[in-house]
Specification:
This protein has one domain (12-134): Glutaredoxin (3-Layer(aba) Sandwich). With 167 residues, the chain is α+β, with helices and mostly antiparallel strands. Strands 2-1-3-4 form a 4-stranded mixed sheet. It has a 3-stranded antiparallel sheet with strand order 5-6-7. 41% of the residues lie in helices and 25% in strands. The protein contains 5 helices and 7 strands. It starts with a helix and ends in a 19-residue tail after the last helix. Helix 2 runs parallel beside helix 5. The longest helix is centred in the C-terminal third of the chain and has 24 residues, at 125-148.
Length: 167
């Protein structure tokens, strides 16, 4: 009986995907701001896995390495985070910018993130958590709408059946 419950629960599990990419040079090095962001992303994913497990949401972190040549073609792709398929700036109503970096990045300008008038070179855990929780809430909203709203092809479908459903 316990196995059947476990299998049922695993089938309903949703996955929140987090992708983080950064420059790693030919010596395996990255810049300080990417190093700080990497620590923040890893710590945040561990916490999110524990917290969101109770909501049947798994968190999957993928780290993508940008080669030096890819970085030189587009340095603003480094230190970039996507959560649930959207850039972190979308979730946070933020803007991306750029500023001079150091070490592994050479003379290139690197990505910054501006949220509520404050600019971050390294992305702090609290911003990653906020964006991830917004994305997780959207995952849950999709689930809850399917349980309360009529199917799309229903003649009564007109903008959702409850305040959280605006489909």
């Amino acid at each position: 009986m316990a196995t059947a419950t476990y299998l049922t629960r695993r089938i309903k599990m949703k996955t929140l995907k987090i992708l983080w990419q950064r420059l790693v040079d030919e010596h395996g090095q990255t810049c300080a701001r990417c190093g700080v962001t990497e620590t923040a992303v890893e710590e945040t994913v561990k916490k999110l896995k524990r917290c969101l497990k109770e909501l049947d949401i798994d968190v999957d972190l993928e780290k993508k390495v940008l080669s030096s040549s890819a970085f030189l073609n587009n340095p603003l792709e480094s230190n970039r985070i996507w959560i649930g398929g959207e850039p972190i700036e979308t979730w946070l109503s933020a803007t991306s910018g750029q500023s001079k970096c150091c070490s592994a990045c050479g003379d290139s300008d690197c990505r910054t993130l501006t949220v509520d008038g404050r600019t971050y070179e390294a992305i702090p855990p609290e911003l990653i958590v906020k964006a991830a929780l917004l994305a997780a809430a959207q995952l849950l909203q999709g689930e809850s709408c399917s349980s309360c709203c009529p199917p799309v092809e229903s003649p009564n479908k007109s903008g959702g059946c409850c305040p959280s459903c605006k489909q």
